[in-house]
From TrEMBL:
Residues 1-10, 21-30 have a biased composition (Basic and acidic residues). Its EC number is 1.10.9.1. GO terms for molecular function: 2 iron, 2 sulfur cluster binding; metal ion binding; oxidoreductase activity. It comes from Rhodopirellula europaea 6C. It comes from the Bacteria. Residues 51-142 form the Rieske domain. This is Protein containing Rieske [2Fe-2S] iron-sulfur domain protein. The lineage of its organism: Bacteria, Pseudomonadati, Planctomycetota, Planctomycetia, Pirellulales. InterPro entries: Rieske_2Fe-2S (IPR017941), Rieske_2Fe-2S_sf (IPR036922). Residues 1-30 are annotated as: Disordered.
Length: 145
C-alpha cells in the first residue's frame, strides 16, 4: 500500500546555476507574494530622501536575508535590483561587490554580472538569479520563487 503523503520525487534545493536558469527575469508575477527585504528608514537614516533626491547618481547596496535566501539588493541608476547574493563562482558576497555601468563585480575573483539579467559578462550565461523587486513607500519588497 502506498503512502498518499509521500512525494515520489524527493525535493532538493536548486544548485545556483539551476536557480539562475529559472530566474533571470525581473518581471513581477501575479502568482507570487511580495516579501519585505528591509525598510529604507531602518537601513540608513535619510536614505529614502537621499535616493529620491538624486536617483541617477546615488547608489546603495545591501545584503538582505529573505526567507532562506541571501540577496544582494542594489539601487543603481534610479532602479532597484535583487540578485542572489552568493556568487555562483565560489560563493563570494555580491553585496560587497562594486556596482558600476549596470553590473556588479564580485569582490573575491572579479566575476561580473549584469544587474538586469544576472548574465555573467564573460561567458554571457545567466549564472546569477535575479528577482522582481519594488519600492513600496519606504519598504523594499521582492518576489521569490
Ligand atoms: S566567488 Fe565570486 S568571482 Fe569567485
Amino acid at each position: 500500500m502506498s503512502d498518499s503523503n509521500s512525494d515520489p520525487k524527493p525535493k532538493r534545493n536548486l544548485y545556483p546555476n539551476e536557480l539562475a536558469e529559472q530566474n533571470h527575469n525581473r518581471q513581477p508575477r501575479e502568482d507570487l507574494p511580495w516579501h519585505v527585504a528591509f525598510d529604507l528608514n531602518e537601513a540608513e537614516p535619510g536614505l529614502a530622501e537621499r535616493l529620491a533626491a538624486n536617483p541617477e547618481s546615488e547608489s546603495f547596496v545591501r545584503e538582505a536575508l529573505v526567507g532562506d535566501r541571501i540577496l544582494a539588493v542594489i539601487f543603481h541608476s534610479g532602479q532597484w535590483y535583487a540578485m542572489d547574493g552568493i556568487c555562483t563562482h565560489q560563493g563570494g558576497p555580491l553585496a560587497e561587490g562594486h556596482v558600476a555601468d549596470g553590473c556588479v563585480t564580485c569582490p573575491w575573483h572579479g566575476w561580473q554580472y549584469e544587474l538586469e539579467t544576472g548574465t555573467q559578462t564573460t561567458s554571457r550565461q545567466p549564472l546569477q538569479a535575479v528577482f522582481p523587486i519594488r519600492q513600496n513607500g519606504t519598504a523594499i519588497e521582492v518576489q521569490l520563487p
